[in-house]
Every structure is written in C-alpha cells, then in structure tokens.
Amino acid sequence: MINQLLVFFELQKPVSTSAERNLLIYMVGVLLVLCALIIVFFVVFQKRKNKLIRDKIQQQQAFEEELSNTQIEIQEETLKNIGQELHDNIGQLLSVANMQLSIMATSVDDTIKNQFTETKDVVKDSLREVRALSKSLNSDVIANRGFLESIKNEVERLNRLQLIRAELKVEGDNTMLRNNKDSIILFRIFQEFLSNTVKYASAESFIVALQYLEDKLVIQAEDNGKGFDVNTIENGAGLLNMDNRAKLVKASFKLESTPGKGTSMIIDYPYRVAETLKL
Question: Whole-model pTM above 0.85?
C-alpha cells in the first residue's frame, strides 16, 4: 500500500511542477505587459507634458514679441509724427525767418550788420539741424536712405554740433543688409546708445564700426567717457529697451562699461529676409 502511494506521488510530482512553471511564465508575462504599458503610458504622458510646456513657452514668447512689436510700432509712429512736425512746421517757420532776415540784411546799419549776419547764420544752422534731426526720427526716411547713410547722418551731426568727436569705420559690402525694417530697429538701438553717451558719458570721442560679413552685420560702438557700473543699471529702461529691440530682430546685444574707462556696445545681427516685423 505504501509503495503504491509512493508511486502515485511520484507520478503526480512532474505534473505539479509543470503547472507551476506555466503559472510562473504566465505571471511573468503579465508583469512584463504591465511594465510595458506603464512605460508606454509614462513616455506618452511625458511627451504630452513637454509639448504643453513648449506650447506655453511659445505662446508666451509670441505674446511678448507681439507686445514688443506693438510698443515699437507706437514709438515709431510717434517719432515719425515728431519728425514730420519738425520738418513741416518748425522747419517752415525757420525758413521764413531766414528769408526775412535775408531781406532785412540789405537795409540794416553797418554798425550792427555783423551781428545781424551772425544771427542769420544761426537761424540757417538751426534750420539745417532741425531738418537733419527730423530725418533721423522719421522711419520712412531711414528706410529710404538705408542704415549706413542714417548712421553717417548721426556721426556728421555730432561733429557739426561739436558735441563730441565722432568717427565711423565701415568694412565689407553694406548691400548685404537688405531688410529695411530690421535696419530701423538696429538704428534705434544705435540712437539709444548714442543718446546715452551724449547725455551721461562726458566723453570726448565716439567711434562706431560696422562690419558687413557674409552672414551677419557686427555693430560696435564705444566712447571714452566716465563709464559706469553695469550692475547698477541692469534693469534700466534704456538698457532693457535696447536689449528688447535686439531680440526682436534675433540679434545678440552686449553692453560693457567700467567706471573711468568708457562704455562699449556690440550687436551681432544675422541677416534676415524682410517679412516678420511690421513698423
């Protein structure tokens, strides 16, 4: 009887082992499928999360760019109106005054003729400067004249007024810059830097260098003024304005200054086709 039971259990043992093996394989398979599903779910979730983050960043960038575009459009329209007012109204009044002085010059006494002539020359010079200033404010004129000619106009105006000794250096082919709308933005950045130099730097000389390379325009401007600590004006409106304008045209902007050693600005502008910015 005992022998029969032993034989029975010996016969049943392989069957039990085979069943357990199959069960184990089934459970492992189920676990692998669950793990695969979890991994797939995690990857899909992460991709959707990354896409949402990218979309949010792009929307924020698009909003900020549109806001900057709108602000610059308003600024440009304001400057254009001021330029037109200077040219049409103030310029016209100075022209009339100059004509009247020319007529009166023939009948004044010799004792005051020299002073009268000097006054007439002052009015004439004022008229010329008003017209030059009106051109630098009007974006249409800047676009028609081009970036290089607009820079030359500013340098010549500085030297003419003897506010500062200015110098312009140009390398390369200026026709490489074909985007008039971007050139207006670049010119406004230059104007902002130049204005700060005249107002605050107490500089004697100002040098601007334009390098027209094959793929980009490099604008370098520097003065020998008193300089400043960049960290103290890090959030200044002027610096932020220049930096924001540079970002609009996908240019890099760098401002360096040391107290007692002057200030310099470098703009690297990769050429772009004229299609994105409205002014």
Answer: no
